[in-house]
Design a protein that fits this description.
This protein is α/β, with parallel strands linked by helices. It is built from six helices and six strands, in the order E-H-H-E-E-H-E-H-E-H-E-H. The chain has a six-stranded parallel sheet with strand order 3-2-1-4-5-6, with helices on both faces. About 40% of the residues are buried. Keywords: Hydrolase.
Length: about 180
């Protein structure tokens, strides 16, 4: 039987500045729920090489970023302290939109026997959508925590959650997920 993991994605200062202030407490609640239930947590963060030598100029998202952003020395690239990884939690860096891009996330999940991904992060129209679609294509069971995801465009968030992501997996809230975890224990 496969295990479940929570993927907390792009909860970095540079991303948090683009979503409503009431978002972070919901992400913290998702993290606490996972930890309390013994669900493994994987933190996924955008990290580009200094000078963005790994960002092609034709890439509309990454080619246009100033070359100092989301590099190891950028304070805005740090995972917010309220959702910082605890000892033993996995941190994976990506260099594109999907959590699977430019790293060994799929290998880590397989080695841990994880077949169900619960997604939370910023932005719904970016990493959440991209990761959910790729994960579904890779045959993972996917659950999206609708209130632990955010997008700079709230209308886009609602459309994606209600009309697109629900077709690829389950969409639920942190509270309902927590109840389901308790019932499964």
């Amino acid at each position: 039987m496969s295990r479940t993991a929570l993927l907390l994605m792009d909860l970095q200062a540079g991303h948090l500045s683009h979503v409503p202030a009431d978002y972070l407490p919901r992400a913290v609640r998702a993290l606490r729920t996972a930890r309390a239930a013994g669900v493994p947590v994987v933190h996924v963060a955008l990290r580009l090489r200094p000078g963005h030598i790994d960002a092609h100029p034709r890439n509309k998202t990454f080619g246009a970023l100033p070359p100092h952003l989301f590099t190891p020395d950028d304070p805005g690239a740090a995972i917010h302290p309220d959702v910082a990884p605890a000892d033993g939690e996995i941190v994976v860096h990506k260099n594109r939109v999907s959590a699977f891009a430019g790293n060994n996330l799929q290998q880590i999940l397989a080695a841990q026997g994880i077949g169900h991904l619960v997604l939370a992060g910023i932005a719904t129209g970016g990493i959440v959508l991209s990761t959910a679609l790729q994960a579904a294509d890779l045959d993972y069971r996917v659950t999206v925590l609708s209130d632990a995801c955010a997008d700079p465009d709230p209308e886009l968030h609602d459309t994606l959650v209600d009309r697109i992501l629900a077709r690829r997996g389950e969409v639920t809230t942190v509270e309902a997920w927590g109840r389901a975890l308790g019932a499964a224990a």
